[in-house]
């Protein structure tokens, strides 16, 4: 059974944006998959040429078909934030994993991630490993703005 390395990208990403992730993640016994929202043909072709599996989600959290997902956090409201790819990607990953069979799964960012070695080596097979960027959400200006725009006063009080 293979391990799974999975991430999510949007159609506004270029080959150059994902090249580091793709070209440094080709490990033995590791399947690589990217969820693509609003994909471009150029990006899809590059991923296929590099043996990266592609999932193109077409449904929201309520099972409704959607022709495309929102990528711009600046246009979000409380109602529309459910379909923002930054948020809905975790639902789509969960939906996939319910039916998938992998030894271990690592979910990563893509544009700013490069691998120096196989990330599955050394993991305890009997435990869940969770990592972070070593900041809390309210310590970064972009995060603060994201919370305020998407959640309003509730976000301001809860972070």
Radius of gyration: 17 Å
In spatial order, strands of the major sheet run: 3-2-1-4
Mean pLDDT: 87
- Ends distance: 40 Å
Global shape: globular
Secondary structural class: alpha/beta
Indicate the low-confidence ranges by residue numbers: none
Strand content range: 5-15%
Q: Spell the H/E element sequence.
A: EHEHEHEHH
The largest sheet is: 4 strands, parallel
- Report the strand count: 4
Counting H and I runs of at least 4 residues, what is the number of helices?
Answer: 5
How would you explain this protein's 3D organization?
The protein is an alpha/beta fold and 159 residues long. It contains five helices and four strands, in the order E-H-E-H-E-H-E-H-H. The chain has a four-stranded parallel β-sheet, with helices on both faces. Helix 2 links the parallel strand 2 (30-37) and strand 3. The longest helix has 15 residues, at 85-99. The radius of gyration is 17 Å and the shape is globular.
């Amino acid at each position: 059974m293979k391990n799974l390395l999975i991430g999510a990208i949007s159609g506004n990403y270029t080959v150059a944006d994902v090249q580091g992730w793709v070209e440094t993640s080709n490990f033995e016994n590791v399947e690589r998959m990217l969820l693509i929202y609003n994909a471009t043909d150029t990006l899809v072709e590059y991923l296929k040429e590099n043996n990266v599996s592609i999932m193109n989600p077409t449904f929201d959290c309520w099972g409704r078909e959607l022709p495309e997902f929102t990528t711009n956090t600046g246009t979000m409201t409380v109602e529309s934030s459910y379909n923002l790819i930054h948020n809905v990607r975790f639902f789509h990953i969960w939906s996939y994993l319910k039916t998938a069979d992998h030894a271990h799964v690592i979910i990563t960012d893509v544009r700013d991630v490069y691998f120096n070695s196989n990330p599955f080596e050394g993991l305890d097979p009997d435990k869940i490993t969770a990592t972070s960027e070593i900041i809390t959400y309210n310590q970064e200006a972009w995060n603060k703005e994201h919370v305020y725009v998407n959640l309003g006063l509730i976000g301001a009080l809860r972070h």
